[in-house]
Amino acid sequence: MGMRTLGPEMKTSNEPYKWGKTEAVQRGRRGFLTLLACLSVFGSTMAQAQTQPIRLLAFGDSLTAGYGLPARAGFTAKLEAALQAKGLPVTVINGGVSGDTSAGGLARLDWMLADKPTHAIVEFGGNDGLRGLDPQQMEANLDGILVKLKAANVKILLAGMRAPPNFGSAYTSAFDSVFARLAERHKVAFYPFFLDGVAANPQLNQADGIHPNEAGVNTVIDRILPSVLSLLAQS
Asked: Is residue 166's pLDDT more than 80?
């Protein structure tokens, strides 16, 4: 038998298959490019969200206000600089009022919330202790502050304080136990003593022996910074 040549219909019999395969590849490529575009937009949105400024309220008394120091050397200015040095877009709001008690803080909290903080360090108690005010009332005031901050969806770091020794052991025990109890009750981050490493050290305090000097503020920042970073990780 002679060799038979393929007819025109057999030469083209695979064309529909080739075309179908090519179209499937093209559809796959289009889908892949669409997916890449979506991922690009999603990544851009996430990057924008991560770089949105954080508003951290330092809410307290003269210790957060920076009593006796130039503005650049106070707690809030130094904390903001330390956080921004780590690449964090944080604005630290100075919510300190010298001489303020926990009652004063509760009374003006609504005004501070107008600044729309996202996070807050709560630092009160020093003036309550110096005046020998009732620890139970201080606890009620601080409880009210924490309730309002949480209702405003503000993430909280509660900083503890210690009573001066001149009111006796019963007062000291009642006073000092307030802060850990509140932190546990409200399930908020807790830094046991705001003046850790600074209190009673003449080299780190101003002449009054109560307020940190600039070196003392640096120590406060160094000690509290890990807790602040953990707080800011909460979103």
From this structure: yes
183-220 residue pLDDT tens? 999 999 999 999 999 999 999 999 999 999 999 999 99
Whether 169 is catalytic: no
For residues 218 and 78, is the Cβ–Cβ distance under 8 A?
Answer: yes
What b-and-e string marks burial along 27-49, b requiring 16 or more CB atoms within 10 Å of the CB? eeeeeeeeeeeeeeeeeeeeeee
The alpha-helical segments, DSSP class H, found in 97-156 are: 102-113, 126-130, 135-151
Specify whether 211 is catalytic: yes
Q: Is 143 a catalytic site residue? A: no
Q: Where are the alpha helices (DSSP H) in 51-190?
A: 62-65, 75-85, 102-113, 126-130, 135-151, 169-186
pLDDT class of 51 with cuts at 50, 70, 90: low
Question: Rounded distance, CA 217 to CA 205, Å?
Answer: 9
Residue 159 bridge partners (DSSP): 123, 191
**Which candidate in 62, 100, 102, 119 is catalytic?**
62
| Residue of 100, 102, 176, 211 marked catalytic | 211
pLDDT in tens, 67-88: 999 999 999 999 999 999 999 9
